[in-house]
Design goal:
Blueprint lengths: L5 E3 L4 H9 L5 E2 L6 H10 L4 H19 L4 E11 L2 E3 L5 H11 L3 E12 L2 E8 L2 E4 L4 H11 L20 E5 L2 H5 L3 H10 L6
Parallel strand pairs: 1-2, 1-3
Antiparallel strand pairs: 3-4, 3-5, 5-6, 5-7, 7-8
Helix pairs in contact: 4-5
């Protein structure tokens, strides 16, 4: 198996953790794409949440692929969509509280896009949309959850970390667990095996 350079165009701790746990050798390099400006442009253009996620993933991977043409570059993005509205990360705990009250008892989707570029060219993509239904938790539970979780939940667009206490917010989940974490791992591993980047 050849030693192929693999770059994750992200500084996300959870995405790095997922790949590391799977035994994949890679480098994590920030793309430095201005995501906020890109999101504004994509939304003004009327793109659906799934399309926004795909375009952002492409922007990240393409930028680094031009800088590191010898590498396979992975770009990822995730959008939380509820009733046609797209949500970004909460700015503070007060906003997180209101966000979770809004999500309570409702079903939302995590629109995931993962792409791979090589030598500045697009070569692979995978899209997924796990479906998550929050239970109708009490205000008392919500306050306890916010206190116990702390501001680390602000790093998640949904104000929850499913691998921790956040699982208690839900009554039903369907879809790829790893996609919920932000990195659809099984399709990615299939691609990496097919290209001799990880052992088959």
């Amino acid at each position: 198996m050849s030693e192929t350079r693999l770059i994750l165009a992200s500084q996300s701790k959870i995405r790095r953790h997922v790949l590391e746990n799977a035994g994949v050798k890679f480098e994590a390099i920030a793309s430095n794409v201005d995501e906020e400006m890109a999101k504004i442009a994509l939304r003004e253009a009327g793109l659906k949440p799934s399309e926004q996620a795909h375009e952002l993933a492409k922007l990240k991977a393409q930028k680094l692929s031009r800088k590191y043409p010898d590498a396979f570059v992975i770009g990822c993005d995730q959008m939380l969509a509820l009733d046609g509205e797209v949500f970004d990360k909460a700015a503070d705990m007060d906003e997180a509280r209101e966000r979770l009250k809004h999500f309570r008892g409702k079903t939302h989707y995590l629109q995931n896009a993962i792409v791979i570029y090589k030598s500045g060219e697009f070569i692979w993509r995978h899209d997924s949309a796990p479906k998550l239904k929050m239970r109708s938790f009490s205000d008392e539970f919500l306050e306890s959850y916010l206190i116990q979780s702390g501001d680390k939940i602000l790093s998640s667009v949904g104000c929850y970390q499913l691998e921790g206490l956040g699982i208690q917010l839900f009554e039903e989940i369907s879809g790829d667990y790893f996609a919920i974490l932000g990195l659809p791992l099984l399709p990615l591993l299939t691609f990496l095996r097919n290209h001799n980047i990880v052992a088959a």
